[in-house]
Design goal:
Number of strands: 18
Number of helices: 6
Helix content: 10-25%
CATH class of the largest domain: Alpha Beta
CATH architecture of the largest domain: 3-Layer(aba) Sandwich
Distance between the termini: 31 Å
Low-confidence stretches: none
Shape: globular
Number of domains: 2
Mean pLDDT: 92
CATH superfamily of the largest domain: Nucleotide-binding domain of ferredoxin-NADP reductase (FNR) module
Strand content: 35-45%
Largest sheet: 7 strands, antiparallel
Order of helices and strands: EEEEEEHEEHEEEHEHEEEHEHEE
């Protein structure tokens, strides 16, 4: 794990969708699927990102453009430099099973991408609001796709599509990442059928190593106790799917 930021040069850039770019860089990271790194832009800020591509000495982060920091990342070019530290947190467990499902909502699919490649034979569900927001179409050609507007694939949410799959398939383990309300409903569906479930929570992470407490969820610090949590722990996290701590320190509903 890297404790101090090191500067890496952007090796390549791929456009995944109109709003998502993947920035590739060379670095030797001791990474497990589900962990995250802190990305630093000098004189601007530092934010957490999951590693969405990982092969030997090449890694990538997939960035959804939505604010000042992510806009700055989208404006970067090959050869520009970033600071990174990490990886941090607890990743996904990867048992030897051929009967797993990953459920990604929007940019949440980025957290599941390296896990999906590690699992190999796995059922993939990805959902967005509209067709243009789907990512990794060429990378994972056998995805079960859904859109809320019906512009491609199943019309409905990831929860709707996952519920339909459960009518004809059974899974030993389900992994999910996306909006927290979505993950909570996936967790409930799994719980009702005694299916092991792991979700990757996305809270406001400020330090990355458990000091500030900004990412707290029912006493669990997402940055070091998670970001991945299994069913038995989620069952005891009363804030999961309900409340979170905002950047200003106030609590709000998910």
């Amino acid at each position: 794990m890297i404790e101090q930021p090191i500067m890496v040069r952007i090796f390549d850039i791929t456009k995944e969708s109109p709003g998502v770019k993947t920035l590739f860089f060379k670095s030797k990271l001791n990474f497990e699927p589900g962990q995250f790194i802190m990305v630093w832009i000098p004189l601007l800020d530092e934010k957490p990102f999951t590693i969405s591509y990982f092969q030997e000495e090449l890694a990538g982060i997939s960035v959804l453009k939505k604010g000042l920091f992510t806009n700055a990342l989208h404006n970067m070019k090959k050869g520009d430099k970033l600071g990174i530290r990490g990886p941090y947190g607890r990743g996904f467990s990867i048992p030897k099973t051929l009967n797993s499902c990953v459920v990604g909502g929007g940019i949440g699919m980025a957290s599941l991408a390296t896990l999906t490649e590690r699992l190999g034979n796995v059922t993939i569900v990805q959902g967005t609001k509209t067709a243009s927001e789907i990512i990794y179409r060429e990378r994972f050609k056998n995805m079960n796709i859904c859109t809320e507007d019906g512009s491609i694939g199943f019309k409905g949410t990831t929860v709707d599509l996952f519920a339909e799959l459960l009518k004809k398939q059974s899974f030993q383990r389900v992994y999910a990442c996306g909006p927290e309300k979505m993950m909570y409903r996936i967790f409930e569906l799994c719980n009702s059928r005694y299916i092991e479930c792991e979700v990757s929570l996305d809270r406001y992470i400020k330090c990355g190593f458990g000091v500030c407490g900004q990412c707290d969820c029912s006493g669990q610090r997402i940055c070091i106790d998670g970001p991945v949590f299994p069913s038995n722990e989620l069952s005891n996290m009363k804030d999961f799917g309900k409340t979170l701590i905002l950047k200003n320190g106030k609590r709000a509903y998910c």
